[in-house]
Amino acid sequence: MNKRWLSLLVGMLSVLFLAACSSSNDKNGTGEVKKANAESDEPLVMVWYPNESGSDLAPSRDAFSDIFEKATGRKVEHKLTTDYAIAIESITNGNAHIAYMGPQGYIEAKEKSADVEPLVVPSGESGTLDDAVYYSWLAVPKDKAEQYKINGEFTLDATEGKSISFVSASSTSGFKVPTSSIISHFSDKNLTEEALMEGNEVYPDVLFGDSHQGSAVNMLMERSDIAAFCNTCVEAYVEIVEGEKNTPGAVYKVKDDAAAPFNTLVGEEFVLIQVTPVLNSPFVVNTSVLAEEEIQTLKEILTSDETTNNTSIFVPEDSGGAGLFYKAADERFLEVEDAWFNPVRELSK
Q1: Which of 80, 87, 145, 283 is most buried (most C-beta within 10 Å)?
Q2: Does 79 score more than 90 pLDDT?
Q3: pLDDT value at position 8?
């Protein structure tokens, strides 16, 4: 069986399993999840994508446990995942109360359940939503970088015939954004997202890393020629050594103290050949299993100065430590409405 279809089958089975398990939250025998109240003593379940489920990020996850427990009075349970579909289904069916997910994952969850709502997003360096973006990268090994230039410039034309690794079909920066640009660039090929999920006339071999780290490793280990992944999911493992960060031509190297899965790739270098800004990722809630009072308290504590100045939440950029979020200037969490994500929705139309 094709590895890609085997991966899809495993994801489908995971979704069916989670749907079956949703009955464990049925408190009234109707098949519907009973709405929680602010006095609930049930654990608060926080689900994480594979990118944020690594052991090296446990201290950051624990820091969120502390503030969520303070906000709700509940103990916090972390649901770590190995598949985007599991995280999306968990927040959709109410098996999780809170999730941290990419814009595309949020949109998919919202389409499945109107109960899913955005809570906050990290701001940009300005402390506003104006620059609340991260970056989708297409990267190649440094020693192969010249192959991807025509007339001295990096171009997607030079990627034709190569193999490529994406993250997951539900990843914004690791699939949705790069495939949108690929489809637009090769408009004469009549490519579709579905075609780019497997071998096609532009990329004969297509892999999925199941996380941003996994996609990057596919490229560094030469399982694929090119890889799509985002800057924020690998910044704990790599450092820039040449050029300007988040620009084509920038060279990055795996850090000497990089944790798994990069620990066997120390010193390996790669070059960015395409960089695209992406709307920042939200924390989202399922309003059917959280009381409105709890949701408002969560927003208040996440957007507070106390959280903004918590160095376990926003790790100082020059600290060298691993974290979910880094603070270079005035970064903080800001409330956000569903409509803010409409530019990502437009990519599917």
Answers
A1: 87
A2: yes
A3: 41
The fraction of the chain above a pLDDT of 70, given in percent, is 88
Count Cβ atoms within 10 A of the Cβ of residue 233 and give its class: 0-12 exposed, 13-18 middle, 19 or more buried: buried
Q: How large is the average pLDDT for residues 221-227?
A: 98
Q: Distance between CA atoms of 312 and 314, rounded to whole angstroms?
A: 6
The structure's pTM equals 0.79
Q: Give the residue among 263, 243, 242, 238 at the shortest CA–CA distance from 253.
A: 238
Residues whose CB is less than 8 angstroms from the CB of residue 114 and which lie 6 or more positions away in sequence, other chains included: none
Q: How confident is the model at residue 246 (pLDDT cuts 50, 70, 90)?
A: very high
pLDDT band at 319 (very low <50, low <70, confident <90, very high): confident
- Report the Cα–Cα distance between both ends of the chain, in Å, rounded: 32
